[in-house]
Amino acid sequence: MKEPITDNRYISQVYYPHVVAANIPSGTVGFDRDYAPTSTQFNQLYADGYRFYIGYTQHMTAEDLNNALTAGLAVMLVEGYYSGMVSEYTGTEWAQLAINAAQNIGYLIGCNLWLDFEGISDVSDITAIEWANDWFNAVQNAGYVPGIYVGEPEPLTSAQLYNDLNFSHYWRSCSNSTPDVDVRGYQMIQTSCSNTVLGINVDLDTVQTDNLGGLPIAEYYVP
After folding, report:
1. Cis amide leading into 153 (omega within 30)
2. Predicted local confidence at residue 17, as pLDDT
3. How many C-beta atoms surround the C-beta of residue 201 within 10 A?
4. How is residue 167 annotated by DSSP?
5. Contact, 10 vs 176, CB < 8 A?
């Protein structure tokens, strides 16, 4: 069993024995991947210096969550992009799919649940704002902390991302054309996409404190 971070400066709330919601410290390196690695791969990734994993609600299982946590990795969830998410679902409906998936695998309330906000080119900025804020409200009402992954294309400017969205947790995609977020900035940067690590494809991510002192909130296992 690896030793996860147990420094009380980062632990925000204890929900039940051995599992906590905690901020990921600035400078921590992790990865995201649509399908979870195996238990052995999680252990190897920890040994290689990775300290958090972001899994996709569409594919994550309770076993995947347990494997990542017991390997020593912090875990967060993202609702992955789907081309018809805005046209075929309301923001509330899309959020409910993510909430159901998170609850079904026992993902801890109080942690970030991220929205993959990209590939949106056929709706107005007003529609996109309303849709994303509806997603935010549903996720927050379920007890999770909404976060938003900003990719491209998406119709919002830097000012709109900060002023018109309800979010306070922002994650920047690896695309060079992704806009900045006015005032607050990003808490996570996807530093590189489509990397091969231990024979599997992963995107690499690094945590940083945003301009207003914010950090991502993940689920940790504490022995």
Report:
1. yes
2. 57
3. 13
4. -
5. no
